[in-house]
Amino acid sequence: MTEPLTGPQKSAVGIESATIQPIPADQRSGTNRDMFTIWFGTNVMVLAIVTGALSTTVFGQPAWSAALAIIIGNLVGAVFMALHSAQGPRLGVPQMVQTKGQFGSRGSVLIVLIVVLMYLGFFTSILIFGGASLASVIPPLGHSGGILIIAVISLAAAIWGYALIHTYARIMTYLSGAVLLLAFVWIFAVHSVPAEFFHTSGASLAGFMGTVSASAVWQLAYAPYVSDYSRYLPVKTGAKPAFWMSYWGTTLGSILPMFLGASVGLLLPNLDPVVALTKATAGISGLVVVVFSVGVAATNAMNLYCGTLCTITVVQTFAPRFAARGRERALIAAGLVLIAISVALTVGDDFTQTYNNFLTLLLGSLVPWTAVNLVDYYLIRHGDYTVEDFFRRDGGRYGLVNWPAVLCYLIGVVVQIPFMVLGTAYTGPIARLLGNTDLSFLVGLIVVSPLYYATVTVLARRKSRAISRNHRQSIHPERTEPR
């Protein structure tokens, strides 16, 4: 087995052997620019285009409203994503390992399992849309063939690990960026755009907020694993450079392909977004679809890589002596791929609405976690954690279960339910009163952030008073005796 790769500047030919272990400060390398390329290069892909298309197809927004909502959702959601990224250089561990510092060793298991399901959900969605893209330009492949090709490429990159994923993303930054620009020029300059494309009627608060939510969850979905990549950066990189490079990489890499998705949704509203993209770029559709489909393999490799690390984290929680390396990571990754392929090959034809509902549920489960994590890291502990205790069976100073964090998380999930809109499947009573407008993620942030901070602060004060009282009693025991 090879030595752990320690940064994106290392050769991508060796298989990474490190998994969830802390990356020592003297074994880190790379620059903050690597955070830009990995998040830009992996966002320019088919699934981002499909997410953007939701704004004009599922949510029925005109061009101006769709564009504004996409920008707002991404800019706001990426703040939380980048704040998590800034944690990596300091702690040097995957995000879900660090979550033990807020929820306790076993209290974090619920969160980690939800995140594993998230990775599988995104992995499966990318297989479905990416497979359809490949099949649209290479018909002999068929949908199943496209799914299998993307799955194999994703698995290979995930097994090789961090360095290859970074190299892959760096190449795709330039390649996907150029093809994305070409696609815009081709659609608007080569093909005639109907006058109704720029109509201004039809905007609604419900559709606008639905687009904002879908865009925000796109960014929030990176929060559970963004520091898995920044953990390899040298400590001297600092939090601010990691924050800003991650922020602009992910926002620019997401907003532009989402604009493309919104555009093809307006041009061909009655078609599947993938088919609409192929028709809208007729003449260069083969190049566009193949490049964007190859790009999804990079993103799927990240989903698989981090899903594997989360699975290892769960196992290590109950078996601290389990020291997974490259071989174990490869076996777990292969198992997750088999599950995703099985689901991808059995879903129905109309997966777009199902995908939108998945994003809504995902947002509801991630928002309370990110609120607890960021408040704890930045406002309570100020980044001061004992990393060694994350790997102890008893959780060390963080214990087995930190009930205030767990309860605040559960409250955060529950309070969002009345504000949720899940397509035709469910509309919360308050969302219905607001004209089917989904404000659930805003409610989750507003409730959980101050609730967790106040709870921890009050408990800390009570503990401090109890310690002071016991100290006084130990010095002057006669004061405690009855007269």
Structure summary:
This protein has 19 helices and 2 strands. By secondary structure, it is mainly alpha-helical. It is globular and about 90 Å long.
Low-pLDDT ranges: 1-13
Shape: globular
- CATH homologous superfamily identity: Hydantoin permease
* CATH architecture title: Orthogonal Bundle
Q: Which CATH C-level class is it?
A: Mainly Alpha
For the terminal residues, how far apart are their CA atoms? 73 Å
- The H-and-E topology, N to C, reads as HHHHHHHHHHHHHHHHHEEHH
How is the main sheet built?
A: 2 strands, antiparallel
Helix content: 55-70%
Mean pLDDT: 84
Report on the structure:
By secondary structure, this protein is mainly alpha-helical. It has one domain (25-363): Hydantoin permease (Orthogonal Bundle). It is 67% helix and 1% strand. The chain has 19 helices and 2 strands. It has a two-stranded antiparallel ribbon with strand order 1-2. Strand 1 and strand 2 form a beta hairpin. Mean pLDDT is 84; it is low at 1-13.
Features:
483 residues, single chain, 2 strands, Hydantoin permease, mainly alpha
Write the layout of secondary structure elements.
Blueprint: H1 33-41, H2 46-53, H3 63-85, H4 88-91, H5 95-98, H6 100-103, H7 109-137, H8 142-160, H9 162-190, H10 205-220, H11 227-230, H12 239-267, H13 273-280, H14 285-318, H15 326-344, H16 352-380, H17 403-416, E1 421-422, E2 426-427, H18 429-433, H19 440-475
Antiparallel strand pairs: 1-2
Helix pairs in contact: 1-9, 1-12, 2-12, 3-10, 3-12, 7-8, 7-14, 7-15, 7-16, 8-14, 8-15, 9-12, 9-14, 10-16, 12-13, 13-14, 14-15, 16-17, 16-19, 17-19
